[in-house]
Amino acid sequence: MVLEQNDKLILLTNDDGLYANGLKTLIEVMEEFGKVVLVSTIESMSGMSQALTVKIPLRVKLLEENEKHRIYTCNGTPTDSIKLAVNQLLERMPDFVVAGINHGANASVSVLYSGTMAAALEGCLYGVNSVGFSLNDFSRTADFSVCKKYIRIVMEKIAVESLPPGICLNVNIPSLPENEIKGIKVCRQARGNWKEEFEKRKDPMGRTYYWLTGMFQNHEPDAMDTDEWALTNGYVSVVPVSVDMTAHWYMDKLTGRFN
Amino acid sequence: MVLEQNDKLILLTNDDGLYANGLKTLIEVMEEFGKVVLVSTIESMSGMSQALTVKIPLRVKLLEENEKHRIYTCNGTPTDSIKLAVNQLLERMPDFVVAGINHGANASVSVLYSGTMAAALEGCLYGVNSVGFSLNDFSRTADFSVCKKYIRIVMEKIAVESLPPGICLNVNIPSLPENEIKGIKVCRQARGNWKEEFEKRKDPMGRTYYWLTGMFQNHEPDAMDTDEWALTNGYVSVVPVSVDMTAHWYMDKLTGRFN
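Output (structure tokens, whole complex):
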């Protein structure tokens, strides 16, 4: 892959592993926009949030290269992948960091746990236009073709005008036939949480262990300006996500409490 | 440990492991406020962000119990520890989730990578008053005694009046003698990022590997309302941190761009 001066450079990663169908679809669409460098783990890294690998060394392997893309595998988290790429693997700073297409939605508070959205946040911290895409379908055989149209629309928007510093996009696409999707809706993150129901089991030695399971609870199912509402009602949700987690609206009140 | 009806129940965790001095100090102070249940890994879990363990089963062990506290170890992340405690180990919902005292500051964008702050965010998602405490000193032998006074002040404030839903506190304490600390300052998260300088090495087989290192870059060193400024200038910084990552101020503009 030769990166010409006019080529856009697009850095991709995901958290479902190198052989996920969502990633294949993303590569196809992104090659329409520029030269693609992908860094991802072979295995899935779901729920890794913005975790960093600090206790074991990172290893990287160039797996495949052609005129349109280079594909690396690494043994780190999605966030490690972005850091490694920016600092060690890319010719220059990328024009876009794009993560996904995640198998399963990353709406509401899932943004906090998602490795996909962490990668977008990481791109954003480097000052790069960054987006995470997710399809609201966990199945391995999900049909990602419906995503292409909406990925194109979003990428064209941010190619024309960059996102403000410190903001990336969290895009969730409903798992519906294309003619049933009602369009794009800019939303806020719905209030909710996961209700965990750990499965408590015994291993063959009689020792207890737990598997994390859980069900999402939407605390405001009727709020039409949320990503959960949009997804449930057939819209593609687009949430501007900030790397600044400060609750600015509460600062004056809190200052008063400490005086 | 018997939990009486009037006892406050305080859930603790950290990301520096069970034998960290910061955790010992935190337990001592928290026992002044109620009955303490601690769930933590033996080893450190730094930089784990809000990662969840989904690929290996979780195991828990009751290590120690006396009149004032119960101490469990588990093999999960700080976020797993909070989830396991709330769902499997505690008599009832805790009154406080407290994480730390972290060895090293968690100011600015470190909130995104920190396992300590992730635990506080997790408590917050359960609707519990939650705080993460950090001392601006990475050394293993750091003197945590100076933290006690400020932990008491913060805990007394949130005991009197709960934090609003969806907000927890990120408290960073300078590593200074008590008489040099100028007081508490409510702040916003400073804008910055980590400039990574991976160390590239060869293993004995001649294969390349990388260690993540890095240096924090404050993008606004003169902004006096930030946590970085407060810490550098001898103040304890208190940032209200929101589980809602939506960039609300940008929603109208973004909506316009998609119409």
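The two ends of chain B are 60 Å apart (CA to CA).
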